């Protein structure tokens, strides 16, 4: 049920962190992979690793906030493979600050990458899924779509807003495209060590003490611990599951 042999998985934000891990997981499950991100040299290095596993891999430089970049990149991917079966919308940023300190530019940037990016990539992928009457779309939201933090260490109002918007977009797409055998689901990671967090949250002993103290598992997520949920939503194991949101946070959101 989790075998992805013959499928093509498109991964945004694939140059590092959770996106890179997911690309590896897709390849291990048998899928060919389209790697998308702004840092082409990193994508090309990852592509060589995946090709060594016997996969067909395409690395494309893309800015998910730029429509022409997205349109061109997805067209290139479709021309190469002839079908696009899975889309992992993983590209995202986290900008700190409350509404009293955030600049308009920082707020707009959060919305552009975290929401508009998903819209644009989905826009150009989903038409091919409709033609093929098959698709699995997985949107990476965040536990911070449903919980917030009053502590100044972790105030991220634009992040809260953008990730909550991902859930609304996920439900809307799921309701519309279910008739085309396309499922659309979202995942809410808690704290994972990644390029986005290692130089910020993981450098703050005060934050880690607070987070670990509140988390039932008393730790952050480890590399690869998101992959099982990603593969579930991307496979036929979830063929009758759509519009859903699974939080992978060590129980943080339940206490």
UniProtKB/TrEMBL annotation:
One of its GO terms (molecular function) is oxidoreductase activity. Pfam families: adh_short. SUPFAM superfamilies: NAD(P)-binding Rossmann-fold domains. InterPro entries: NAD(P)-bd_dom_sf, Sc_DH/Rdtase_CS, SDR, SDR_fam. Belongs to the short-chain dehydrogenases/reductases (SDR) family. PANTHER family: 3-OXOACYL-(ACYL-CARRIER-PROTEIN) REDUCTASE (PTHR42879), 3-OXOACYL-[ACYL-CARRIER-PROTEIN] REDUCTASE FABG (PTHR42879:SF2). It comes from the Bacteria. This is Short-chain dehydrogenase. The keyword Oxidoreductase applies. The keyword Transcription regulation does not apply. GO terms for biological process: bile acid metabolic process. Gene3D superfamilies: NAD(P)-binding Rossmann-like Domain. PROSITE patterns: ADH_SHORT. Keywords: Oxidoreductase.
